[in-house]
Specification:
The protein is an alpha/beta fold and 252 residues long. Helix content is 47%, strand content 13%. Helix 4 runs parallel beside helix 7 and helix 6 runs parallel beside helix 8. It binds magnesium ion. GO terms for molecular function: acid phosphatase activity.
Length: 252
């Protein structure tokens, strides 16, 4: 009887052990979670500027970047960042000389090119200038979630808002004005596009020169917001810089 009981216990233990080692059908496989874990690490390294000068999103991360951009997390991240910027704005006392300034980048800071990059598998395929121009001219862009809220607050608070973009003035000037207007960006001080003298210069050099010019005009740059590190590096970067997420492309 004792042996029979021991045998039953052993059989039950064997069954339990087999069941415990089997994965439920909804549990991600080790291979799938390793791939998505890599893509999350890659995206975090990109956002922290630890990986630089990358040309395209790793092919295996297309689905990860798509899920991030359109699945709700991108919007949640933007909302937290914009809330933080608004808290900072509330600490600033503006002067009455009209020289309190704020800088916003344009692409994927004010206006979203997400649907252009959808055609590029969310950055797995490289940027093409001809296709991008057609996209900009088509006016099918949208506002970046939450940034219009920030823009309206900046204007309402009395900041002079400068929109500084690496877009070429000659080929994209008109389209950019229309893109901004269509998405509700009114009342900014100046839209500054890349002119011929800055052609071929890095974004860091070009945007530094623009900010230097503003500083020489007497403006105090309280804040600077962009989706690229090159929007926020170099000279005269501003009192505070804020990096918006963008795992789809890198601009040096
Ligand atoms: Mg940008």
């Amino acid at each position: 009887m004792q042996r029979l009981r021991e045998a039953i216990v052993l059989v039950l233990l064997a069954i339990w052990s087999k069941a415990a080692s089997a994965r439920p059908y909804w549990w991600p496989s080790k291979t799938a979670s390793a791939a998505s874990g890599y893509c999350l690490s890659w995206r975090m390294a990109v956002e922290a500027n630890n990986i630089r000068a990358w040309r395209t999103v790793p092919a295996q991360c297309s689905g990860h970047v798509e899920a991030y951009m359109v699945g709700g997390q991108y919007e949640r991240d933007l909302s937290v960042i914009v809330d933080s910027i608004c808290s900072y704005i509330d600490t600033i006392t503006l002067s009455d000389d009209g020289l309190d300034a704020w800088i916003l980048d344009v692409d994927d800071t004010c206006i979203s090119n997400l649907f252009y990059y959808r055609t590029k598998r969310y950055g797995c395929e490289p940027f093409d200038p001809v296709g991008f121009k057609a996209w900009a001219v088509s006016g099918r862009c949208s506002a970046v979630p939450d940034v219009l809220r920030l823009f309206v607050k900046l204007i309402g608070t009395g900041f002079k808002v400068f929109l500084v973009t690496g877009r070429d003035e000659e080929t994209l000037g008109q389209a950019t004005l229309h893109n901004l207007e269509a998405q509700g960006f009114f009342g900014y001080e100046r839209l500054i596009l890349r002119t011929g003298v800055f052609k071929g210069q890095s974004a860091i050099a070009y945007k530094s020169a623009v900010r230097k010019q503003l500083a020489e005009e007497g403006y105090r740059i309280w804040g600077n917001v962009g989706d690229q590190w090159s929007d926020l590096q170099g000279e005269y970067v501003g009192n505070r810089t804020f990096k918006l997420p963008n795992p789809m492309y890198f601009i040096p």
